[in-house]
């Protein structure tokens, strides 16, 4: 005998994640410059509010493929407002805004060589 509430259900607040739309940086940048921008964002993001654990989960999700990212945000109770993860909330209503440069590469990324 099982409990009716024991079967997994899809949270009505959860959206299926999608790849971010293509974007272009204001000027061509190298992978090293993109990495530096990302590192600076993740180092300072918790200072804008919200929970460090949610920021950590968002970072891992941003660096993962879509299937794993979906599992991470679902497990952490993150409410995805925009399917590309640019706007999320935690269960307490704290807002988490992610710039596109932490979610995907720009179309004008300069590859050395």
TrEMBL record:
Signal sequence annotation: none
Q: Where in this chain does the record put each DC-UbP/UBTD2 N-terminal domain?
A: 14-112
| InterPro entries, sorted | DC-UbP/UBTD2_N, DC-UbP/UBTD2_N_sf, UBTD1/2
Q: What is this protein called?
A: DC-UbP/UBTD2 N-terminal domain-containing protein
> Origin organism of this chain?
Panicum hallii var. hallii
UniProt superkingdom: Eukaryota
Residue ranges of region Disordered?
A: 1-28
* Matches recorded under Pfam families: UBD
């Amino acid at each position: 005998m099982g409990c009716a509430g024991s079967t997994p259900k899809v949270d009505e607040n959860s959206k299926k994640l999608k790849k971010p739309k293509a974007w272009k940086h204001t000027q061509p940048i190298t992978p090293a410059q993109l990495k530096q921008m990302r590192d600076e964002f993740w180092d300072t993001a918790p200072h804008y509010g919200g929970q460090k654990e949610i920021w950590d989960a968002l970072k891992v999700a941003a660096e993962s493929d879509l299937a794993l990212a979906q599992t991470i945000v679902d497990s952490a109770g993150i409410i995805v407002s925009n399917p590309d993860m640019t706007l999320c909330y935690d269960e307490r209503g704290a807002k988490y805004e992610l710039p596109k440069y932490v979610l995907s590469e720009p179309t004008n990324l300069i590859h050395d060589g």
